[in-house]
Fold:
Amino acid sequence: MLVFVFTKLFQGFLTTLEIFGLTLVFALPLGLLVAFGSMSKFKPLKFLMRGIVWVIRGTPLMLQILVVCYGPGLLGLPAMRSPMLAVVIAFVINYACYFSEIYRGGIESVSKGQYEAGQVLGMSKTQIFFKVVLMQVVRRILAPMSNEVITLVKDTSLANTIMITEIIKASKDLASGYGLELLPILLGAGLFYLLFVGALTLLFGWIEKKLSYYKV
Structure:
């Protein structure tokens, strides 16, 4: 029975990892685009991006999942047939907005002197950003970014709102379907989270040491 429970929890954890991985793959670059939009000198684009970020950051992720999943059907549009797709879209939009604010803070924290020094050396704006500014920004945003990534691990549990069988729903299904005690199963699920978060913490610590050269 122990092996059976572990197998079911592991299957749920794989779904958790899928949501986590897809969110990062799409939200990290999208967040950078949103950050550039929110810093744009073209005011309509700037206000649009900041308005979207304000709405997304001001509403619960669970609500956003429900809106993405059921909203199109309620508006007479083609319904979202894949709950997993709805979850990934909601997570990507949500975390892209949070990441964008981290990116924006990191970029704006680099002093103008860094840009001016690059210009004196005859570098283009693109060269200045990628060769002078980028690694400083990465170093400065690493801590808040790691916090958001770890939060994402735990937020994946919200996918069970629309019946995605991630690890928390797998735990509930085991308890209700096989007459098992829920608490020990949930503790087992918690162990998966702890181990994964521990691995991420070690990874970010290693990256931070590697980037200590760029500390200013």
About this structure: The chain is about 80% helix and 0% strand.
